[in-house]
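TICKET: design request
STATUS: open
ATTACHED STRUCTURE:
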C-alpha cells in the first residue's frame, strides 16, 4: 500500500488534482447551494481521469506482456493490471469522500416538510 501512488503511474496526478477540486467543490456546496453543479463537473472529471489512467495502464501492460515469454505473461500481466487499477481506486476514494460531504450539504439545504394535521 505504501507504493500505491507510484504504482498507479502518471494517471494518478490528474485524478488527484481533479479529486481535490471535487472535494473542495463539495465543501463549498455546504456554504453556497448554488455551486452544487461544480461538484457534478469535478466528479465527472475525477471519474474520467481515473478511467483514462487505468485504460492507459492496461494498454501499456498488454504491450509489455506481448513481448515477454509465456512463463512471465501471467505474473507480469497480473501485476500490471493491479497497478493500473490504482487510478480507478483513487478516483473512487475521492468520489466517495465528496459524496459524503455532498450529503451533508444536501441535508443542510433541505427544507423541512410541512405535515398536515
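STATUS: resolved
RESOLUTION: sequence designed for all positions
ATTACHED SEQUENCE:
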Amino acid at each position: 500500500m505504501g507504493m500505491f501512488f507510484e504504482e498507479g503511474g502518471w494517471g494518478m496526478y490528474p485524478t488527484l488534482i481533479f479529486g481535490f477540486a471535487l472535494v473542495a467543490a463539495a465543501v463549498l456546496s455546504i456554504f453556497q447551494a448554488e455551486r452544487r453543479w461544480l461538484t457534478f463537473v469535478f466528479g465527472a472529471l475525477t471519474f474520467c481521469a481515473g478511467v483514462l489512467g487505468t485504460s492507459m495502464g492496461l494498454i501499456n501492460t498488454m504491450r509489455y506482456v506481448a513481448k515477454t515469454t509465456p512463463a512471465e505473461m501471467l505474473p507480469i500481466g497480473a501485476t500490471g493490471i493491479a497497478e493500473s487499477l490504482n487510478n480507478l481506486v483513487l478516483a473512487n476514494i475521492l468520489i466517495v469522500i465528496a459524496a459524503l460531504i455532498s450529503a451533508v450539504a444536501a441535508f443542510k439545504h433541505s427544507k423541512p416538510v410541512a405535515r398536515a394535521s
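CLOSING REMARK: The mean pLDDT is 91. Residues 70-109 form the longest helix (40 residues).
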